[in-house]
Amino acid sequence: MLELRPNCECCNGELPPQSREAMICSFECTFCAACVERRLLGRCPNCGGELVRRPIRPADQLLRHPASTQRVFKPLA
Q1: How far apart are CA 14 and CA 28, in angstroms?
Q2: Which Pfam families does the UniProt entry name for this protein (predicted)?
């Protein structure tokens, strides 16, 4: 099950579970669409994998399976 991490690893911007701006790789590294387009050029800086839009978990399922609260922040040099 996806963790639905709460922030962009690059800019630390908020990415709530219902965000259509959240992008992930196959390892669930999480970034905002703006960083993916402007800085990362569609590739995960951690694994080199493709970044795609993160699916949105239905609200009733979020109650049973909540999003992660653990933040990951690794600003690019």
Answers
A1: 16
A2: DUF1272
> Distance (Å, rounded) from C-alpha 1 to C-alpha 10?
23
Q: Please give the structure tokens belonging to residue 38.
A: 């402007």
- Give strand pairing partners of 7: 14
* pLDDT digit string (tens) for the chain, length 77 residues: 999 999 999 999 999 999 999 999 999 999 999 999 999 999 999 999 999 999 999 999 999 999 999 999 998 87
The answer to whether residue 34 is domain-embedded is: yes
The answer to whether position 5 is within a domain reads: yes
Q: How many residues does the chain have?
A: 77
Give the chain's domain count: 1
DSSP 47: T
